[in-house]
Amino acid sequence: MKINALLAAMLLSGSIAFAQVDPVIMTINGAPVTRSEFEYSYNKNNSEGVIDKKTVGEYVDLFVNYKLKVQAALDARLDTLSSFKKEFATYRDQQIRPSMITEQDVENEAHRIYEDTRQRIDGNGGMVKVSHILLMLGQKATPAENAKLKSRADSIYTVLKKGGNFAELAKKFSDDKSTAVKGGELPWISKGQTVKAFEDAAYSLKVGEISKPVLSEFGYHIIKKEGTQNFFPYDSLRTDIIRFIDARGIREKIINDKLDSLAKSMPAGTTAENILDKKAEELSAKDSDLKNLIREYHDGLLLYEISNRLVWEKASKDEKGQAAYFAKNKKRFKWNEPRFKGIAYHVKDAADVEAVKKSIKGKAFSEWADILRNTFNKDSVIRIRVEKGIFKKGDNAVVDKMVFKKDTTVKALKDYPIDATFGKVLKKAPEDYTDVKSQVIADYQDMLEKEWVTALRKKYPVVVNKDVLATVNKH
């Protein structure tokens, strides 16, 4: 009994010692938040370069509000939505999937790619090194032009047969300028890399032999075979193969193959997702930064979803709420200078100046654009050009001159020489919430969020351990 009691005490003291390594800094609705989680969030959001840095004490309220919203999302069971699970898995797996393979797995794939390529090339005649002189023939060349170019190619070939220097002649006569500067020399080639006529000639030559002029889709080639060899050694291509693997996303295929292989070796019903879940747990237990990053993905997605439902989307779609907020808070939207609510427009025909005004007079401002489009610019015939909005001084030259009576120059619009305006001057404030809708929505969102946070503070108890808080970044 004494041994059992001693063992229990040792285990308990060990647990306490472990807990003190990462003590609880606060509880949200009874759920513990560790110091490391708070530190991770604080340090990330107050790093060098952040303009509005917060002290640890100032950051507490922001962090608590964040966790309260996440708690509300959990209570609403948003974490059970298939859309959430799929998106969270995508973010999490970006961190976890690379750990499923080793560099040796990548090396093995690189060897497999190399070996497949080597067998294909060496089993099909190996590689050849050639130089060529190209006399380019246009696709629409006449028979006479073809004959003339063939005669020229024959002449060069004759010079070569008499001992002419191939490299010098290539530099002088070849139309393939990228190889001409190198004496016509091409890189090592294998079958399938060039057009068939060129390939057939290159592979049929003996080393050192020069072909008669060969006609291809590009023109006439005179080809000199410089050498033959098998495919390059692996070590000389390894870096390029690894780069190819990364560029083509082949690492993902290696990971998928590894996951499939592991799933097949495990009990029936084991899936790749099960394996990734377990791997995430293992890595998170060893790496607190990874654990906090994954939690950040998880909580951030929940925060976005619930904030969108209760604040952002609600405010942007609730037009009655917007109107009511505007009516209650009109003083917030007063202007320090007048605005012109209307249109500045440009017409070809003077008669259209009055026609425009007549078409929209008495109609709702929100309908003006459609009315003008259907009346004057229908069927691709553009009779007028219009700028609609709520303008302050300096926004529009026509409005400045014709409405605000500023001494300004208006640049005439090509093909629409007659300028006009129609609307009303609002001297002190908007007449309707739609006049400042974006600002109303933003302020309405702020109000909804503050009300929501106040309700969350009342609903969920928050307890902050000030002693642990004092040790943030000081332990």
UniProtKB/TrEMBL annotation:
Residues 1-19 form the signal peptide. InterPro entries: PPIase_dom_sf, PPIase_PpiC, PrsA_foldase, Trigger_fact/SurA_dom_sf. Coiled coil: none annotated. The keyword Transmembrane does not apply. PROSITE patterns: PPIC_PPIASE_2 (PS50198). The keyword Glycosyltransferase does not apply. Keywords: Isomerase, Rotamase, Signal. GO terms for molecular function: peptidyl-prolyl cis-trans isomerase activity. Residues 125-227 form the PpiC domain. It holds the Pfam family Rotamase_3. SUPFAM superfamilies: FKBP-like, Triger factor/SurA peptide-binding domain-like. This is Peptidylprolyl isomerase. It comes from Segatella copri. The lineage of its organism: Bacteria, Pseudomonadati, Bacteroidota, Bacteroidia, Bacteroidales.
